[in-house]
Task: inverse folding
């Protein structure tokens, strides 16, 4: 299962009840932060989400409302005694964008590595050795005023574990979870047992897509195909602001909803609301007339996505 | 009169109800921001304080908890169409500290000037031409782990205006306020009339001192002498943490109170609370046993200081 929390749902400038963009994803004690606007650490505290165990921060682009929370967050990590390395990924321009951020942070007691995801993504165990090989992150080119990318995250669901097969191969019980996570196990006699020898065929996993900032975009629709959750920017509510949305490289509510329909996603969360919308819910009908299950994100909104189709409704704080 | 608002009262890391350090001061439509921790713009919105008219940001030092709100605030100024120039002042190292901040901001539609205050301060009209000559800002060396300074701000109260003398000198009524603010007036025939020709002797003005981060410090006590308000850092509540306070260049509640007594200030507001204090009020007796009028700052706490001694109590939101 995967826990998703919207930490901030504001575009451009923060409001008292709407922090700037950040999304937290966690599963099996591992966690990724997508974007980090100013106020992300406070938003996380409000939402009772610990960011300390974040191994990876994935940035969609380098506009201030998506990255100005980084210096404070990294210094807080340092103050709280973090020593675990941190990886930051993002589109082209990562080194230039992070240079002043890291300069502001000064000396930190943990390493920060900048990493460019290959076009076809990575198994996250290649990036973070202690993660299992069951999760994958793929960058999705998006259409904003600057170089930008969304992210497709998937959690593979291994086939059913066969205890009889495990016993037959002499695998000690303490190593079962390794196989369940998709890793091979080396026995004392040097024999290597592969997951596929013990597990049944893969079952349907979970996948989530976060748009970052983008105008309506074919690559995003394609990547989002069948996703369990699309978290999509929807900066402007009213259809009448479509011109403004296009000018600034953003979506309206109905454009986001149309992408959700085209991609046949299971759930759509709208986020990244312009401060001109006092209450984004007022504009929700623009999205719901196209994608009836569309939901307006709010700061601190959480969902636990489970493998079964028996999903609870999102919890709003 | 002067309006003071504590925007943030947290040290090191922000809490949901305690933003990082920032103090807003305004008088006659002019305003100064002291320090700008992450979250200052949100804190100002919560406190119903507009920062748009801030002409001067005075930094006490360059630790992240005092400056990481700057990139976001400056970009917000830009987004809201500010064109008025902004001056930033601070202790030695200002250029180096602001370089990555301004690099993060990118292009802004207003100018940002970095200015070092001379040791004996400036009349703010020398710094900001449209301000009257009735206000003054003096840096006060403080004792922190890095180069740091507090600020002494004073608002002069000119003598009583004498309308008969003004009429005698042929001064048009529209120019009276100039004289009242301490500026000379040039008549149509070229005669220059000085304020002292029309106004009685200066009356008692107002002065305020903000400590920034500091351990107990003689220069601060000296500068604070008789101040209407001392806003003093008091990072640690319990006297037992005096060693820790000394180690990190901070004050305990009772040390801040002792400075207030020595300086014979009228009011003492404590601020910059460590996150280890869940409720700073619990430690207030440490301060009040020394300076009974000591008050724990809270985010959004305001006071209007008036020339008369008839002062209202601080308003807490």
Result:
């Amino acid at each position: 299962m995967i826990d998703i929390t919207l930490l901030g749902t504001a575009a451009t400038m923060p409001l008292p009840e709407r922090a700037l963009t950040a999304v937290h994803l966690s599963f099996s004690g591992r966690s990724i932060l997508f974007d980090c606007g100013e106020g992300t650490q406070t938003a996380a505290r409000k939402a009772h989400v610990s960011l300390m165990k974040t191994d990876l921060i994935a940035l969609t682009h380098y506009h201030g409302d998506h990255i100005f929370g980084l210096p404070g967050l990294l210094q807080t990590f340092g103050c709280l005694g973090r020593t675990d390395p941190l990886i930051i990924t993002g589109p082209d321009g990562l080194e230039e964008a992070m240079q002043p951020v890291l300069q502001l942070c000064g000396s930190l007691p943990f390493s920060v590595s900048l990493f460019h995801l290959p076009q076809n993504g990575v198994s996250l165990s290649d990036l973070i050795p202690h993660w299992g090989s069951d999760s994958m992150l793929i960058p999705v080119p998006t259409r904003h005023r600057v170089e930008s990318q969304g992210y497709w995250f998937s959690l593979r669901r291994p086939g059913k574990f066969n205890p009889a097969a495990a016993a037959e191969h002499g695998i000690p019980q303490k190593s079962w979870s390794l196989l369940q996570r998709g890793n091979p196990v080396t026995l004392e006699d040097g024999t290597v047992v592969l997951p596929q020898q013990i597990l049944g065929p893969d079952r349907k996993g979970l996948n989530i897509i976060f748009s970052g900032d983008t105008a309506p975009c074919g690559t995003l629709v394609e990547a989002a195909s069948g996703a369990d959750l699309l978290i999509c920017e929807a900066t402007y509510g009213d259809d009448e602001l479509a011109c403004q949305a296009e000018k600034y490289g953003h979506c309206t509510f109905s454009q986001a909803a149309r992408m959700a329909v085209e991609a046949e996603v299971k759930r759509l969360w709208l986020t990244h609301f312009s401060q001109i919308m006092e209450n984004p819910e007022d504009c929700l009908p623009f999205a719901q007339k196209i994608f009836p299950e569309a939901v307006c994100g709010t700061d601190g909104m959480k969902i636990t996505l489970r493998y079964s189709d028996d999903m609870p409704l999102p919890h709003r704080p």
About this structure: DSSP finds twelve helices and 16 strands in chain B. The interface with chain A takes residues 12-16, 19-20, 38-39, 41-42, 45-46, 64-65, 68-69, 71-72, 75-76, 79, 99-101, 103-105 of chain B (CB under 8 Å).
